[in-house]
Amino acid sequence: MPGRTNKETDCFTGDIVSEYVNLANQFTQDLSQALLAPMWTLFMAFAGLWIVIRGLQLAAFHTTIRDVTKEFMFVIIAAILLSGQGPELVNTIYSASLNMMGSAASVALAVGDQSDTAATAVNGTVPLGSGMKTLVCTAEEGVTNVFIMGSMIAKSASLTDPMPYLYALVLVLPYFLVLIVYFSQVVVSIFRVMMLAVLSPFLMLGFAFGWGRDMMKSGVKTLIAAFMVLFGSTAALAVMLYGISSLDIGVDPTQESVREMASITNPDFLLALAMGWLGTAFMTEATGMANSIAGSSLTNTAAGIITAGATATTAILSKPVIERLGNFRHNATKSVVDLIEKMKK
Fold first, then answer.
1. How many CB atoms lie within 10 A of CB 129?
2. Whether 178 contacts 169, CB under 8 Å
3. Distance between CA 225 and CA 288 in Å, rounded?
4. 3-state helix, strand, coil in the chain (%, to 5)
5. What is the pLDDT of residues 281-334, one digit of tens each?
6. Closest Cα to residue 303, out of 181, 191, 192, 190?
7. Four-CA torsion 205, 209, 214, 216, nearest 10 degrees
8. Cα(132)–Cα(18) distance, rounded to whole angstroms?
9. What is the pTM assigned to this prediction?
10. Nearest Cα residue to 264 out of 168, 181, 195, 122
């Protein structure tokens, strides 16, 4: 496609996020259009009931004109919000929330990764969803060096020295999980924003009356908590990328550096391995911190299901490859043994 760079083309997770953002945006607009008439009908019914109840309370001297006037202001505000409720307002809420979330998270990511991709997101001059796409693309780009080093370690293995296969798998596995977990956190954050945009008509309706005013507050807290979760996950990823950059993993690898790296006694190898597992753990901890600060009840269930599903799918797809490698090693070893036996005879 014209105008796209190779980096954007190679970003598999970024394309998924971009498509999901656009589909979610279109869905929220269509649903808000369908809810517009029912919301007005429901609002008029509740407003009529409110007038009757407040009229009876005034007649029974259970309330005052001042209290009724104060509550009537909330009804007017809710009516103004609902009068502008539609695809345009929902799209504004959705796009503004995503852009703010993506730009705020990119500030933390830019500290750990100084590439042009991260800097673009911080500038805030990106279209809808590009901030989220930039986050996952930067994460994918950041762990590429680890995958390159893992591939080089695996290539250094031989029939007499199969341990590099194990070292390569141990090194790559946590970073693969980090990439999937962070991708899950991003798409779950998009879904949370989409749900808040979809539920915005109900929140605006409830804002008019005392029984529903707390729902608006809870919605705002949930949105802030979603921001914090993504920001915390991005901060954990940024620390991991910062550690990878400081170790120069996968940068201009040579046969000697690969052999030195592929060792359980190498401090750089152990540190790289620890950073991968710590990144995964800290991403899940970000949700708990956000709940503690914002008073929300967000969970990691959805992100965990996505991670488990992606991991299981990868394991199923890679099983034939592993079996072929095992058969190849078995056949090769058997051939070498047979050759030795023939030479003895």
1. 23
2. no
3. 10
4. 85, 0, 15
5. 888 888 888 888 888 888 888 888 888 887 777 777 665 555 555 554 555 555
6. 181
7. 30
8. 8
9. 0.78
10. 168
